[in-house]
Amino acid sequence: MQILEQLQSGQLTGTKKLVIAADLTEFPRAILDLASTLEYLDLSRNQLTTLPDDFDQLVNLKIAFFSENNFTQFPAVLGACPNLEMIGFKACKLATIPENAFPEKLRWLILTNNQLTELPASIGKCRNMQKLMLAGNQLKSLPPEMAACERLELLRLAANKFEAFPDWLFSLPRLSWLALAGNPFSTPRTISSNLPEISWPDLEIAEPLGQGASGVIYKANWKRSTTGEETKSVAVKVFKGEVTSDGLPADEMMACIAAGTHPNLVPVLGKISRHPEQKQGLILELIPPTYKILGITPSLETCTRDHYPDNTTFSLPQLISVASGMAAVAAHLHTRGIMHGDFYPHNILINKAAHPLLGDFGAAVIYDKTDTKRAALLERLEVRAFGYMLEDLLNHLDTQDRNREIAMAFNNLKEACLHEAVLQRPDFETICKAIDSAVKL
Prior knowledge:
Blueprint: H1 2-8, E1 17-19, E2 40-42, E3 63-65, E4 86-88, E5 108-110, E6 131-133, E7 154-156, E8 177-179, E9 197-199, E10 203-211, E11 215-223, E12 231-239, H2 249-258, E13 268-273, E14 281-285, E15 292-293, H3 316-335, E16 338-339, E17 348-350, E18 356-358, E19 365-366, H4 372-395, H5 404-417, H6 428-439
Helix pairs in contact: 3-4, 3-6, 4-5, 5-6
């Protein structure tokens, strides 16, 4: 409440960023007094249902979050905000979006976990759109006008009502990260698995290692004998159960199991049974602390691309190790009809020897390999994400450790992976061969 009092008393004059979570039922009009400076507004976790008709006075506003409020209709006034680039309405109660409610400079739109049945045709005017989060709605189709959004790179359609795949998505030249699971058309085949069930009482849960959108990962001791004498340190991922920005945890769990084993995947040891709250989960090999995340998740500025600490460099052997390992594991997944959907450096762990491990299957989908045309397109869509990873590595290549011929070969491979015509990109088997050839130069 202190921040609200400061706002109303004029103490926040000149501020660029404002965050208020105070069970607001009405928009505080004092916010409009900040119009000359305010760039970032977060009114998430309130009880708002509308915005004032003169909200567009906030002419400098670039980022606006209204998640976890009670909006049933997307506020049309946002379309008149001249500099608004990022909008978030996650977990509201949105059912409708008026035409022309999206500002033309919009780059990043979050509508996850609402009740939308359709999008306005005017979304096609958002030519700057790069990131569109639509998981957890009631959508059955996308407006064909969206084909004009040629800068779109990341799209989340999981956990909706699509009965047919919108094949025109493959005409988007930059689409690289796509989540599709949890739709009627994507109901996966039955996954046969001999994964053992591991009883929750046999796990001694220790400290949490991390938390993502779909669940919490804990360090644990697994008592592997009835006497409890034999124990093994493991990681336990307990799924939350609700829809995430990527999709449904149940689909993530199924994709993890279907992925099987590979030297560049975190080994799955079993699945949880007898959880006291009936939650689902997986027991994973505990990764040594010597492994670190390759990249940092996209920022508000980079939107769809990972970023890296200042002075980050990769040696040529590190580049080769990461590229060859990730090409090999991607080929392995697509051979099994699995698209990772979130093929990012921040989902890759590497150790000092640059041995890479791919994780986080939250956006993964199991697709029909017998539909060879669509399978080829889905694989090459993910190839573009691989190309972006190569670009990051090359941009941070140590200039003191550069073999010109090998670096040029990897640069040419990157360009091939980023080709804007989807079927002009190589598949992962071809990429693996190209890397082998490059290393021999």
